[in-house]
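HUMAN: Mind sharing a backbone?

ASSISTANT:
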Amino acid sequence: MDDLIDLYMRSIERIHLAAGQVYNVGGGAGNTLSLLELVLLLSRATGQEIHPVMADWRSGDQRVFVADTRKAKSELNWSPCITPQEGVKRLLDWTPASEHLLRTILD
């Protein structure tokens, strides 16, 4: 099961706790990934070299963000299970199979 669907199901099962609540969803501290690490994962998974172009730092840019998933863990007993590597693989597998959906959205 996908992590987000699992969280939705747990929220429904515990609706008395989850109703009106906000939960951070993401990889949490154990699955952090920088943009450069993501580019490396994509390069390895596709076999294509990717050369990102870096721009100057902007004053409003956030240096680091890690979703704090502790509330979802404590109230819904949910933690992410899909690794960044598996997530990238699933995304790459999904993209060609869903090209018609992407075209509909972009057109």
The chain is about 50% helix and 0% strand. The two ends are 31 Å apart (CA to CA). Helices lie at 3-13, 15-18, 35-46, 70-76, 84-97, 99-106. The mean pLDDT is 89.
